[in-house]
Amino acid sequence: MKYVMLLGLGWVAACHARGVARTAHPADSVDLAGFVPRDSSDSALLAPQVIAEPSVVLFWLRAADTLGADDRAQAFDDLKYYTEQVAAALQTNGIRLLATHADTVYVALPNRALRPILLSGLDYPFGYLFIDPGGPERILTGVYANDDLMDELRAYFDISDDSTAVQPRITT
Fold first, then answer.
1. Which of 82, 41, 66 is nearest to 124 (CA)?
2. Where are the domains of the chain?
3. Calpha distance 88→47 (Å, rounded)
4. What distance in Å separates the CA atoms of residue 139 and residue 57, rounded to the nearest whole number?
5. Which of 9, 74, 131, 141 could, after both became Cys, cross-link 124 (CB 3.0–4.6 A)?
6. In terms of pLDDT, which residue wins out, 85 or 45?
């Protein structure tokens, strides 16, 4: 058992040494203006992320670079637009919005283990990854219109239809 723990700690240390980013700071939140599809190979978003809280990860993989320039630009513009439409609802409900170009995302488990989620080889090399640590992930590939995307978010994260940014006033 001791050897398994040491091996696990060594693997976590190796991941951090290789640039695995942990999502612990608000500065890690996605800046959609910086998430450009021109050349995903030279982006800082290539470092795999470790997710430890409810999150939506917007992914755009290297394989998207094989699309034609017009198709790639249109897909990216649509993905960005519809993501911006639901960003406020995510923030209101305490769900992080992150972005990555990495093929793998890691979910932090309660026992300090990491569970990898592989994003390459899907129908489309771009889309959304829903993560609520402790449960199964949900991967949506391609572009979803904001109504469809919001329906998927409500179903996965159990978001109320009438959730608002304003907290209800409690009277006694």
1. 66
2. 20-157
3. 26
4. 9
5. 141
6. 85
Burial 155-165 (b: 16+ CB within 10 A, else e): ebbebeeeeee
CB–CB of 154/142 below 8 Å? no
Enter the pTM of the model: 0.71
The set of residues, in sequence order, having a beta carbon less than 8 Å from that of 144 and lying 6+ positions away, is 82, 127, 128, 152
Strand partners of residue 21: 49
**What's the rounded Cα separation, in Å, for the pair 118 and 156?**
19
Top-ranked range on mean pLDDT: pick from 10-24, 29-43, 78-92: 78-92
Token pair recorded at residue 15:
């991941």
The pLDDT value recorded for residue 160 is 85
Instruction: Give the Cα separation of 49 and 21 in Å (integer).
Output: 5
At residue 65, the pLDDT reads 82
Residue-wise pLDDT tens digits, 63-101:
888 889 999 999 999 999 999 999 999 999 999 999 998
20-157 domain in CATH 1.10.150.130? no
